[in-house]
What does this fold into?
Amino acid sequence: MAMQVNGNYEHSRTDYAERVKEQQAVWRTEKAKEAEKAAEEKSSDKLSEPQDEYISSEKSGKKPSGLYRVSQDENGNRKIFFDNPKADHANGKDDRSGEGADGKGPKVSGDSKEKPAEKYVANTDKVDREIKKLKEKKQHLEQQIQSASGDEKKIRELEKKLAQVENELSQKDNDTYRRQHASVSEVSE
It folds into this structure.
């Protein structure tokens, strides 16, 4: 059984398009009315309802009230200091300098007893000697490569050794390696 439908459906397409446009127009006007109502409510509620608002420290003129801060110690290294606001107010001191009430050094957090600061010294002489030896070895290998101008096999072998020395030197000739391999000793006063 075959079924055939005859007719003109052009009018349904335009009707649908028109209906969509009408719905969008209604939706836009409803949104505009809602926005107006919200604006009116905000303006009338401003006095009765407090709201949080971000005020930057520059505008407020006050220092941040955080308990921890990052600063530099006497050696220029970055260090985290603890600021105890209760201790500052009790001693009549409100600056966040990281110094104790006596003004001599960083505050000791947690303990009420003040302990003398322990001082340590890092010695990098051993690491510096190691790096100096590697540089001398590199220079010596470069001289051997220049003097062995005819023997290709020997030159390749020396270049391979030179590449190993340069690799080791690039790993060791930096501040991180020096700090990690420095000998640390306590300084007695």
